[in-house]
Amino acid sequence: MNLNATIFFQMIVFFVLAWVTMKFIWPPLTKAIDERRQKIAEGLAAAEKGKTDLAQAQARIGSIEASAKADLHARMTDAEKHAAQIVEQARAEGESERARIVAQAKQDAAQEVQRARDALRDDVANLAVKGAEQILKREVDARAHAELLTQLKAQL
């Protein structure tokens, strides 16, 4: 065969193959590449949107955390104030109770002193009567001298 004819047929086969490739193979291939490119672009956009959403969520979490810390601090302050108020109220109640107990004890002591004085007056009056009996060597009439004993108790 002739070298020129071979080259010519090879050129025709090449152009036919190029035309078939461009007509039937190339469009689906470019369509698949374009679809893949579109999916990659959408994925990158979704990833970028995810990053911005994550940043916004982290900012919201930070603000919620700061709000929670402020609320916790306010509640702790309120609790401390309430505890101090309770302590002060208990202290005031304790003081009033102490004052009441002291006053009651003073009153009880005054009554006991008065009872002791009365008992001592009675004892002194009885001793005076017995002493007078011993001195006079006779019994003193209690009815006759009841007024005298009452006056003696009042003087003591």
Number of domains: 1
Structural class: mainly alpha
Q: Shape from CA axes?
A: rod-shaped
Oligomerization state: single chain
- Fraction in beta strands: under 5%
Nearest-integer average pLDDT? 86
Helix content: over 70%
Low-confidence stretches: none
Total beta strands: 0
Order of helices and strands: HH
> Cα distance, first to last residue?
170 Å
What characterizes the major β-sheet?
none
The number of distinct helices, counting runs of at least 4 residues, comes to: 2
> What's the Cα radius of gyration?
60 Å
Describe the protein.
It comes from Zwartia hollandica. GO terms for molecular function: proton-transporting ATP synthase activity, rotational mechanism; proton-transporting ATPase activity, rotational mechanism. InterPro entries: ATP_synth_B-like_membr_sf, ATP_synth_b/b'su_bac/chlpt, ATP_synth_F0_bsu_bac, ATP_synthase_B_chain. Belongs to the ATPase B chain family. The protein has helices spanning 3-136, 146-155. The protein is 92% helix and 0% strand. It has one domain. With 156 residues, the chain is mostly helical. The protein is built from 2 helices and no strands.
Jot down its keywords.
proton-transporting ATPase activity, rotational mechanism; 0% strand; transport; ion transport; 156 residues; cell membrane; ATP_synthase_B_chain
Give the topology, please.
Blueprint: H1 3-136, H2 146-155
Produce a short descriptive summary.
The protein is 92% helix and 0% strand. The protein is an all-alpha fold and 156 residues long.
